[in-house]
Amino acid sequence: MFTVPGVQLLDVAGPLDVFAEANRQCAGRKPVYRFRIVANVAGPLTCSSGTRLLPDATIDDRREKVDTLLVAGSPHAVDTVLDAATVAWLTASARTARRYGSVCSGAFLLAQTGGLDGRRVTTHWSVASALQEAFPKLRVEPDAIYVRDGRVCTAAGVTAGMDLALALVEEDVGREVAMNVARELVMFFKRPGGQMPFSRRGQAEVSGRSALQESQRWIASHLRADLSVASLAGRAGVSPRHFARMFRTELGVTPADYVDSVRVDAARRLLEDGSGAPKQVADRCGFTNVNGLRRAFLRCVGVTPAEYRKRYANDISKSDFS
């Protein structure tokens, strides 16, 4: 596991605990995994939590061949530019490793080697667009919990590193051991859904020129109104075609998609409160029926309203959407 100062401790400890538990589950056999924490500086590292971590080695120590190289992330990884020696070490280690990848924002560090170019990867949902912008040759999948693309394996935010490690355990020693590890660590063997339920991507912000900002405020405060392109264009005093083109250019989405995102975000808040029957939630958010809410919810969040309520509602005893 490669780390830098300011590393998020769980990015390191989570995957290593999964591998360590796999060793315990294989008791009586030779340990499957032997792990080392390698840093680009000497001495204890101060983690993002303030905890100190003592790596086993630095990149200047005599190199051992790496089987699986994982690069841990940190809250500052987006803005971290690695020095030439660190990039060279990561490049050489990845080139000879059986597989390599990253946890959370560690993708920003590993991407500086060019080893992720052309690959399908993921990272924490909050910085996925920044990763794609900074490294346009990557094929970023912002909703994935983890992604395997050949020798490359990348995980989303923090605890997703454990999901990735568990998948690697299954690959290495089989499903039964991996399932035992999951049971022992009280984690999903295969976590349902993706990252979208954890994000607030559906929470639209007012932006663009003043006419569009007025339209966005109107949408947010009149969810049950007619929010068709024709109606919104009429309020803005322009043709529907011009309004749709202007909206897409300024905000990067169609008016219909924007309306759906605002309505879905309102539904999310109602579901989290645990109040209201399915039909009431749909009606209060401007959907014609429960099926319309369900379809929009799946597009924007990636799970059904029923599943979302089960995970996040304050009172899950309310009626569901099944």
Automatic annotation (TrEMBL):
| InterPro entries attached to this UniProt entry | Class_I_gatase-like (IPR029062), DJ-1/PfpI (IPR002818), Homeodomain-like_sf (IPR009057), HTH_AraC (IPR018060), INH-QAR (IPR052158)
Record-annotated HTH araC/xylS-type domain positions? 213-311
Q: Does the keyword Ribonucleoprotein apply?
A: no
Keywords, in A-Z order: Transcription, Transcription regulation
Keyword hit for Repeat: no
Supply the CDD domains for this chain: GATase1_AraC_1 (cd03137)
Q: Which PROSITE patterns match?
A: HTH_ARAC_FAMILY_2 (PS01124)
Its name, as the record gives it, is DJ-1/PfpI family protein
Organism field: Pendulispora rubella
